[in-house]
Amino acid sequence: xxxxxxxxxxxxxxxxxxxxxxxxxxxxxxxxxxxxxxxxxxxxxxxxxxxxxxxxxxxxxxxxxxxxxxxxxxxxxxxxxxxxxxxxxxxxxxxxxxxxxxxxxxxxxxxxxxxxxxxxxxxxxxxxxxxxxxxxxxxxxxxxxxxxxxxxxxxxxxxxxxxxxxxxxxxxxxxxxxxxxxxx
Length: 184
What we know:
By secondary structure, the chain is mainly beta. Helices cover 6% and strands 35% of the residues. The protein has one domain (13-142, 153-174): Jelly Rolls (Sandwich). The strands form two sheets. Strands 2-5-11-7-8-9-10 form a seven-stranded antiparallel β-sheet. A four-stranded antiparallel β-sheet has the order 3-4-1-6, with no helix packed on it. A hairpin with a 4-residue loop joins strand 3 (43-46) and strand 4.
């Protein structure tokens, strides 16, 4: 199933998420602000809701979503990506509304071969229209540095996400059928 994971790696891969700024803004713990949506025992909250752990094994990945929707704001996440040979594994976080003309902002970290830079794949959907994909090769920390800006160009007919509140989602999953180290 996950042929790209080397036998030397642990049987369970972990993604650790700490979402400090959202907890401060909402005044609660991760338990109060997020629901684990899939993955059974592969996802858990520890330290009284201060840390959320997503795991991936040969059977499935795992994920969570926010209990609330947000129209605007700032999201800070600390992610620990899968180490070693993780080609085909996607660690993502995205915001998405519902419906046929949904808005969505995607950040997907594609697994890599040991020592290679991580690839950050991003896409923006506005009013159900996407195809605004970009990839970035990350060899270093990007703390506090904007990676991508999507400016409001409604004046020239480009849809812009501003009217639909979105939930925060974060999955860890096997995507070796498309998320291998290739350029778009």
